[in-house]
Amino acid sequence: MHDYVNSLRHSLPYINAHRERTFVVMLPGESIASDNFGNTVHDLVLLHSLGVRLVLVFGSRPQIEARLAAQGLHSHYHRDLRITDAATLNCVLDAVGQLRAFMEARLSMDMAASPMQGARLRVASGNFVTARPLGVIDGVDYQHTGEVRRIDSKGINRLLDDRTIVLLPPLGYSPTGETFNLACEDIATRAAIELQADKLLLFSSEQGLMDASGVLIRELTAQHATTHLQRFKELKQLEQHELLQAAVSACRGGVPRCHILSYQLDGALLTELFTRDGCGTLVDQGQFEHVREAQIEDVGGLLELIRPLEEQGVLVRRSRDLIEREITQFSIVERDGLIIACAALYPFPEEATGELACLAVHPDYRHGGRGDILLERIEQRARALQLDSLFVLTTRTAHWFQERGFQACTLEQLPSAKASLYNFQRNSKVFRKTLS
Question: Domain 289-434: what homologous superfamily?
Answer without folding.
Answer: Gcn5-related N-acetyltransferase (GNAT) (3.40.630.30)
